């Protein structure tokens, strides 16, 4: 599906909202940026991949910013230029290679560090506004479901669920809510790269498909539609929840 066909006409469910998101150059982040803009939001899309990020710049309602969310100095500079943020969508993540036991907790810490760092810096703006909405990217591979050969990734994503619940509980009286999205396997460039990197890509593809009871992967656009709901006032009574979208994988 082309970017142009995904952008479409403005719909209005997010009119007037300023939405900042990370990892917007491709996959779920890109699909969410387009879906948010389609619903009338002012979107500030960030990523380290400038070439891919520029593909979004031509769409109404989307501004782009090259940003490495692992660098505090860059985040501080970015935050100083933001006058308002209604929704923060933390998409950035990574799939680590197998690590030794001695490296385990270091890698888990890195998996959640930039979520906390980026959210904390922009959180000050939300507190000043006395309103805000944080959406974190977690996974079914977390505290929800144990997955073979995903111990570090799953632990970091379980930590995101814990962080989400804690933020929601701590700041509900300040008008700030926080939820996280927990997808199953999503057909993204990242997934395809991991499949092609295997010794037998066809076998790897089949292995991924076997665990999806629907017999297919989710699309990035399907996840983005859930994110639109969480970003909108339609979900105003929803906070502290890991929202699963996995095609029945966790059943």
TrEMBL record:
Pathway: Siderophore biosynthesis; Amino-acid metabolism. InterPro entries: NAD(P)-bd_dom_sf, Sc_DH/Rdtase_CS, SDR_DHRS6-like, SDR_fam. Its EC number is 1.1.1.104, 1.1.1.184, 1.1.1.30, 1.1.1.300. GO terms for cellular component: cytoplasm. One of its GO terms (biological process) is siderophore biosynthetic process. It is an enzyme of class 1 (oxidoreductase). Keywords: NAD, Oxidoreductase. It comes from the Eukaryota. The keyword Oxidoreductase applies. Belongs to the short-chain dehydrogenases/reductases (SDR) family. The keyword Oxidoreductase applies. The gene is Bdh2. GO terms for molecular function: 3-hydroxybutyrate dehydrogenase activity; 4-oxoproline reductase activity; all-trans-retinol dehydrogenase (NADP+) activity; carbonyl reductase (NADPH) activity. NADPH-dependent oxidoreductase which catalyzes the reduction of a variety of compounds bearing carbonyl groups including ketosteroids, alpha-dicarbonyl compounds, aldehydes, aromatic ketones and quinones. Reduces all-trans-retinal and 9-cis retinal. Reduces 3-ketosteroids and benzil into 3alpha-hydroxysteroids and S-benzoin, respectively, in contrast to the stereoselectivity of primates DHRS4s which produce 3beta-hydroxysteroids and R-benzoin. In the reverse reaction, catalyzes the NADP-dependent oxidation of 3alpha-hydroxysteroids and alcohol, but with much lower efficiency. CDD domains: DHRS6_like_SDR_c. Transmembrane segments: none annotated. This is Dehydrogenase/reductase SDR family member 4. It catalyses: 3alpha-hydroxy-5beta-pregnan-20-one + NADP(+) = 5beta-pregnan-3,20-dione + NADPH + H(+); 5beta-dihydrotestosterone + NADPH + H(+) = 5beta-androstane-3alpha,17beta-diol + NADP(+); (R)-3-hydroxybutanoate + NAD(+) = acetoacetate + NADH + H(+); isatin + NADPH + H(+) = 3-hydroxyindolin-2-one + NADP(+).
């Amino acid at each position: 599906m082309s970017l142009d066909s995904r952008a479409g006409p403005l719909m209005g469910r997010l009119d007037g909202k300023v939405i900042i998101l990370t990892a917007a150059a491709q996959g779920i982040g890109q699909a969410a940026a387009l879906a948010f803009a389609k619903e009338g939001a002012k979107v500030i899309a960030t990523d380290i991949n400038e070439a891919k990020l520029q593909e979004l710049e031509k769409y109404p309602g989307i501004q782009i910013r090259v940003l490495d969310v692992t660098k505090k100095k860059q985040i501080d500079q970015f935050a100083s230029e933001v006058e308002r943020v209604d929704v923060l969508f933390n998409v950035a993540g990574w799939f680590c290679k197998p690590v030794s036991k001695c490296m385990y907790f270091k890698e888990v810490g890195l998996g959640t560090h930039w979520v906390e760092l980026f959210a904390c810096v922009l959180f000050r703006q939300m507190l000043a506004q006395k309103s805000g909405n944080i959406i974190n990217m977690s996974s079914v591979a977390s505290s929800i479901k144990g997955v073979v050969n995903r111990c570090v990734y799953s632990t970091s994503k379980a930590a995101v669920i814990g962080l989400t619940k804690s933020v929601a509980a701590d700041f509900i009286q300040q008008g700030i809510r926080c939820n996280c999205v927990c997808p199953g396997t999503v057909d993204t460039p990242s997934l395809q790269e991991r499949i092609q990197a295997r010794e037998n890509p066809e076998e790897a593809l089949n292995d991924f498909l076997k665990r999806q009871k629907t017999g297919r992967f989710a699309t990035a656009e399907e996840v983005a539609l859930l994110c639109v709901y969480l970003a909108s006032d339609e979900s105003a009574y929803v906070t502290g929840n890991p929202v699963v979208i996995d095609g029945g994988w966790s059943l």
